[in-house]
Design goal:
The chain is α/β, with parallel strands linked by helices and 278 residues long. The protein folds into two domains: 2-55 and 119-277, P-loop containing nucleotide triphosphate hydrolases (Rossmann fold); 64-109, 2-Layer Sandwich (Alpha-Beta Plaits). It contains eleven helices and eleven strands. The strands form two sheets. The chain has a nine-stranded mixed sheet with strand order 3-6-7-2-8-1-9-10-11, sandwiched between helices. Helix 7 links the parallel strand 9 and strand 10 (210-215). Helix 1 (14-25) packs across helix 11 (262-271). The longest helix has 17 residues, at 190-206. The mean pLDDT is 93. The chain binds iron/sulfur cluster (2 copies). The site of one iron/sulfur cluster has 13 residues, from helix 3.
Amino acid sequence: MRVAVASGKGGTGKTSLACALARALGPGAALLDCDVEEPDCALFIKPRIEREAEFTVPVPAVDSAKCDGCGRCAEVCVYNAIKIFGGRPFLFAHMCHSCGGCARACPRKAISEVPRVSGKVRQGRAGDLYFADGIMAVGEASPVRLIKAVKKEAPPARHVIVDCPPGTSCPMIAAVTGANFCLLVSEPTPFGLCDLKLAVETLKKIGVPHALVINRSDLGEGEMEAWCASKGIRILLKIPFDREIAAAYSRGETLLEARPEYREKLLALFSALPEDAV
Ligand code: SF4
Ligand code: SF4
């Protein structure tokens, strides 16, 4: 069972919940931190890193002896990563999405592909919990390939919890895709509800079943619950504001350290996920 933990916006407690859920599941669980632009699961579960590898992506390299400056490569690059200056192609490597289009389009076979370091992937353990994360290199434009690389680190036959990037754009979609279920974590504020609607719309489009966990649930006036009821979205857990949980978070601890009684609630939540998603 692969469960993605996502949120329309940052700061909802998504990572804390993902870490707590993975911990509650215990041996046989794996936690993948796919929020590669700002990975922080390791701060909460403090894994022992066993393997760390550079992650590279292929980018074009132009053989100037073969290139005649025709500009075809710049024409086919929809990411504007190649421009022609002074009759020669110039690559903006950080904008390249490694699609390979320019190399295929070059009529003079002047383009080959060379690896460029785009980040790193780490794997380790926190007790019985398997852990992997990705750390994007500074200046990288797109985290999507690194997210896919972290997802490949998932061991077979385990419950896999994926901590997703916030938002509803390509990184979130890359992290959620392939999950059996997505737990959305939100807070009952106008911003939270607005971003929840976007996240639900996205998940519907990519066909991932989903339900909601409301964090700081006592802050709102019931609008989020009413909207969920009108859309048939189940609310699997409500976590009221709790100063102890907030203090634990600031110390790099999950809600389980502050309130161990949530272990049973999280296990009940997990077992309540739909059968057809398991
Ligand atoms: S398509 Fe090939 S030959 Fe034309 S400008 Fe680009 S690299 Fe040079
Ligand atoms: S590999 Fe794709 S994205 Fe990168 S420069 Fe070539 S066409 Fe553009």
